[in-house]
Amino acid sequence: MFKIGSKYTRKDIGYLYFPNKGRPKGGDWDTGYVRVENDLVVFMNIGVPGATGHDFPNEYNPETKIITWFGKPNRSSSKTPTFKKLLSGEYTPHFFARWDNKPLFQYLGVGKIQRFEDGYPCRGGKGEPAKCIKLIVSIDDIEHIVSEDIGTNFDDYSPFSLEKQLEDFIVNNWDISGFGENYDIYKENGEIVGRQYQTGRGPCDILAISKDKKEFLIIELKKGRASDRVAGQLGRYMTAIRQSLAKEGQIVKGCVVANENDENLQYSLNAMHNTEFYKYEIKFNLEKINSLD
Question: Of 19, 126, 165, 240, which residue is most buried, by most CB within 10 angstroms?
Answer without folding.
Answer: 240
